[in-house]
Design a protein that fits this description.
Layout lengths: L6 E6 L6 H16 L4 E6 L1 H10 L1 H8 L8 H17 L2 H19 L17 H15 L4 H6 L5 H25 L8 H10 L10 H26 L5 H10 L1 E3 L3 E4 L2 E4 L1 H8 L2 H13 L3 E2 L1 H10 L9 H12 L4 H11 L2 H4 L2 H5 L13 H14 L6 H8 L3 H10 L10 H15 L4 H12 L3 H8 L5 H11 L2 H16 L8 H18 L8 H17 L26 H5 L4 H6 L2 H16 L4 E7 L6 E8 L6 H11 L2 E10 L4 E10 L8 H15 L5 H7 L8 H6 L4 E5 L7 E6 L6 H11 L2 E7 L8 E8 L8 H21 L8
Length: 825
């Protein structure tokens, strides 16, 4: 029991108990509650208790661990014997399946991976409940839940028993500490608690790993051992009826007179088992057959391989390499077989580089799994694309050497946990693996490229302006071939998917697919489609068609508070000239119907110099809202900062921003936000309120500071948040764009951050021309394309360094001050 666990208390009585026993029960229950014990109790006769246990698996498993606290020893002994005989032993199959089903449901709710980064110490896979499951089944099969007694009966090996007892002691200690620290039942090992416990246990860091990462690596080694041992034990003790065994016998067949396949399992004929398990070639051949027959290893065979793997020679023959690459080629079975090879230790015989990654933690807010689990999930994510009907599935199916892609996914993050950049170390590891497996020079080059550049595509798609021809040309030149592009495209998507359940979004998919499509056209010999003049003419044709198309009565592409007359056919004469006033990134990213609307609004704003038009459009994605601002602006007016300030003061979370300024000074800015004050669709009155506030500030009738005072939103600053935040980093890129200086800001994601940055950029006499907000793979990242107040690119190195230092200092000041400035990122 942990300090704040619920206590299940059974009052067992015979039918002839005196009334004083009822009074004793009532007083005991009152005393328990007065003492602060969370009591769950029942009063039953032995017959009632046995009937309840047969119908309630949770009650039955609780009785497995039952202890007599007080009362008639003979009554308890008789009841325990009847329970074991009538509820467990004589109903073994029912008891077994009830226990396993309940545990499976619990894992599904609290975490199916034993290497998730915020585990439930009790209920997640690899937690204490897996030890309980093993004890319950051990009780049913061998008459005892005691791990040491199970070892003496040969039910589990000495090594497994020692690993279970060590893990039980470690996990129990962690759980007890969590309870005492929280003052209540707390089972989740949060990141804050991980930091505290690493410090409490005096764990020392290394050059490549923080103390908390080493502490959690220790935790995951225990949880992985528990999950593995429990899984093998429950698989081995699974009840099989006579008819099931007979049916499997009839359907079984041998392969090469050595391997036997039956019932979805593959095994080795007993007289050949020793010789096969002692040779790498024999085991790789086994896994190749397992993939061919879509079979998993028989539990006893998996245990023997696990014992044999450390003794197998690390020398990789040409045939060994051929068999391993064949396993990587079996689409649909690759992830499954690699997981089994990793669990038995065989994968580390072929790829010793995996040893370092075993249970290796990446302590950040976005990865949900350890490096080894992330790598395996990435392979599985790529395989899943085989049935995908979208562009990623099409690209995956066209890849000729899928085994190289799968190997790259397995290796791409193995450089983490060292002092140097993990992509650089990964490149070296990939070259070593390629030589070990005897890959050709071309295959080696492909593998090294994919591992070394695995972040390149996401970096460009999520942080850079994809309408910039230089960005596309440079990326296409780096990739070099359509085949490499397809492999990098699939690898990028699989990598992000494997980060966690919420990592892959439609927005990221669209951006990465857009980069893939445009680059594929360049690499396929059709660069003309990316010339700016041709793109503008293409957009012009689409806009012209939208203007000429009849508009249904009442049709609208937005929820507008002030409708504006759409473009008339008479306006078509100078349409192309008017469109050339808009930046290319606006024309490429904006639907033709929206461009038509913007042209009409821009014409109205041009005719009325002080006009400010703000429109709110509800978007179905995540119930977000897009606020579109059209007005006349001068470079350096600070409009971007003012709008972010208004949205900040109103408590909105800014998801993205797209800034557009025409050559004649008309601004069309878009901000996509989430409104935390309203669940579901944001009501009309709230949309009008935000629209009005933006107009008031941009028209000069109100200041951002006044809005802050009126809508001050304070969130308490906690020491835990300060300890947990990501380090601030400001990077200035003056090479990727010929027209702009690009500022990348890596920082802890907090409301108010964007307004802080926008204000600092304004004070530094910079004009924001394009922004990509909250775009990240590994960290929160905001990207700003800036110029000086004259619209020119920054050139002075000293000024660039001053900008970098000032931004970093302002963000650090914002963090230390908490919410001296109001929030609303």
């Amino acid at each position: 029991l942990a300090p704040y666990s619920d206590v299940d208390l059974l009052f067992l009585r015979t039918s002839g108990c005196p009334k004083e026993f009822d009074e004793c029960i009532a007083q005991t229950v009152r005393d328990c509650w007065d003492a602060g014990i969370q009591l769950g109790h029942s009063v039953r006769t032995p017959a009632d208790a046995l009937a309840g246990a047969r119908g309630d698996p949770a009650f039955a498993t609780a009785l497995v661990e039952a202890r007599r606290l007080w009362g008639a020893e003979r009554l308890f002994a008789s009841f325990a014997a009847r329970f074991h005989r009538k509820v467990v032993r004589n109903r073994y199959a029912k008891f077994y399946h009830d226990c396993v089903a309940a545990r499976d449901a619990e894992r599904a709710q609290h975490g199916v991976s034993e290497r998730q980064l915020e585990p439930d110490v009790k209920r997640s896979s690899g937690g204490l409940r897996d030890i309980h499951l093993l004890r319950w089944i051990g009780f049913a099969a061998y008459g005892t839940p005691d791990i040491d007694l199970l070892r003496r009966q040969g039910a589990i090996s000495k090594e497994d028993a020692e690993a279970l007892l060590a893990a039980q002691e470690f996990l129990t200690r962690i759980r007890v500490d969590l309870h005492f620290a929280a003052g209540k039942a707390q089972e989740v090992l949060t990141r804050e608690e991980q930091l505290r416990l690493a410090e409490l246990h005096g764990v020392q860091g290394t050059a490549g790993q923080r103390p908390v990462e080493r502490f959690m690596q220790m935790y995951f080694r225990h949880s992985t051992a528990v999950a593995d041992i429990s899984l093998r034990f429950t698989a081995r003790e699974r009840p099989r009826s006579y008819w099931l065994r007979f049916g499997q016998f009839l359907l079984s067949h041998r392969s090469n007179q050595v391997y036997r396949v039956r019932g979805g399992e593959i095994d080795i004929v007993p007289r050949h088992r020793e010789s096969v398990c002692n040779r790498l070639e024999g085991l790789l051949n086994l896994y190749e057959l397992a993939g061919l027959y879509s079979a998993q290893l028989a539990p006893e065979l998996a245990e023997q391989i696990r014992r044999s793997a450390p003794l197998i020679s690390r020398e990789i023959s040409a045939n060994d390499a051929r068999l391993f690459l064949s396993i990587l080629r079996a689409t649909g079975q690759v992830g499954r077989q690699l997981r089994s090879m990793f669990a038995t230790g065989l994968l580390e015989v072929v790829l010793p580089e995996m040893t370092h990654a075993r249970c290796l933690l990446q302590f950040n807010q976005y990865h949900c799994y350890t490096v080894d689990e992330h790598s395996l999930r990435a392979v599985e994510a790529a395989e899943a694309f085989d049935g995908d009907t979208g562009p990623i599935g099409t690209a995956y199916r066209k890849i000729k050497r899928k085994e190289i892609l799968h190997l790259a996914l397995l290796l791409h993050d193995l450089g983490k946990g060292f002092e140097r950049d993990h992509s650089e170390i990964g490149r070296e590891l990939a070259a070593t693996v390629a030589d070990r497996l005897g890959l050709s020079a071309q295959q080696k080059e492909t593998l090294v490229f994919l591992v070394h550049k695995h972040l390149l595509m996401s970096h460009l798609a999520l942080r850079r302006d994809l309408s910039d021809p230089e960005v596309l040309a440079r990326f296409s030149r780096d990739v070099g071939s359509p085949e490499w592009l397809r492999m990098l495209y699939v690898l990028t998507a699989a990598d992000i998917i494997a980060v966690g359940p919420q990592a892959w979004t439609s927005w990221k998919s669209e951006l990465i697919t857009e980069l893939f499509d445009r680059s594929l056209q360049i690499l396929s010999g059709e660069p003309s489609q990316f010339r700016e003049a041709e793109r503008v003419r293409h957009v012009c044709r689409l806009v012209r068609a939208a203007i000429e198309a009849p508009t249904p009565v009442g049709a609208s592409i937005r929820a507008a508070s002030d409708p504006v007359r759409a473009e008339s056919p008479e306006a078509l004469s100078d349409l192309e000239d008017r469109l050339r006033a808009f930046p290319t990134h606006y024309l490429i990213a904006t639907p033709p119907e929206q461009i038509v609307d913007d042209l009409a609004v821009a014409r109205r704003v041009a005719e009325h110099e002080d006009e400010v038009v703000v429109r709110a459009t509800r978007e179905s994605l995540h119930d977000s809202v897009e606020y579109r601002i059209v007005t006349r602006d001068q470079v350096g007016s600070g409009l971007f900062g003012k709008v972010t300030g208004v949205l900040t003061a109103k408590g909105l979370q800014i998801l993205s921003a797209n800034i557009c300024t025409t050559t004649d000074g008309i601004v069309i800015d878009r901000f996509r936000v989430l409104d935390g004050d309203h669940s579901g669709a944001v009501p009309d009155f709230r949309l009008r309120e935000i629209e009005s506030a933006i107009v008031e500030v941009l028209a000069g009738r109100q200041t951002v500071e006044e809005l802050f005072q009126r809508h001050r939103r304070l969130i308490p600053r906690s020491d835990a948040l300060r300890r947990f935040r990501e380090p601030t980093r400001v990077v200035i890129d003056n090479n990727s764009s010929e027209r702009f200086t690009i500022v990348d800001v890596f920082a802890h994601d907090r409301r108010g951050l964007l307004y802080t940055i926008a204000s600092a950029l304004f004070e530094l006499n910079l004009s924001v021309c394009l922004a990509k907000i909250a775009t990240h793979v590994d960290q929160v990242l905001d990207v700003f394309y800036v110029t000086d107040r004259d619209g020119g690119k920054l050139q002075d190195d000293q000024r660039l360094e001053t900008i970098r230092q000032t931004l970093a200092a302002r963000i650090e000041d914002f963090e230390r001050a908490g919410l001296a400035n109001p929030t609303g990122r």
